Amino acid sequence: MKIRQGFVSNSSASSFCVYGADIDLNKAMKALLGRDKEVTITPGCEHEFDREASKFCAECGSPAWNEEEEEWYIENLETEAEKVDLYTYQIHGCEDYEDGTVILGARLHGLGGKRATKKNPGMIAGIEETLEKLFGEDVEVDFHNGTCWG
Fold it and tell me: How many domains does the chain have?
């Protein structure tokens, strides 16, 4: 029998190096797609009762109303971001970032990392200008890198 010692992982890892801003996914979608998520409100069950007076159905215990948010599709965000020369990296399972965050900016992974920005200072100015137009002057633009585990 073979015994493997040391670090073993069955999960996939994804590394990233981006000059840009980490933005809440909903905020990014609103800025790039021009709208908020739509919420559909439907009755929680088929029983008749005063849904304004009671939060739950006395017969079955279901909530008075169900709220369903539409799904945001990352492909829509990527398509719109590409139109303004932004790369998107959606965060899942990263220690230094919250899930539900997307990093928008210039992809540096495979281009020499931070050295790529020294070779092309116009890239930094362009990314900063685009992000400020979308998210305001208080957007924090910086280097972001790490590994996410899926």
Answer: 2
Task: Report the alpha-carbon distance of residue 91 to residue 105 in Å, rounded.
Answer: 14
The pLDDT tens digits for 17-35 are: 888 999 988 888 889 888 6
Q: What's residue 120's pLDDT? A: 74
Same domain, 77 and 139: yes
DSSP codes of every residue in 115-142? HHHHH-HHHHHHHHHHHHHHH-TT---E
Q: Which domain holds residue 97?
A: 1-36+73-150
**Hey, what are 27's tokens?**
């905020």
- Angle, vertex CA 20, rays to CA 37 and CA 124, nearest 5: 135
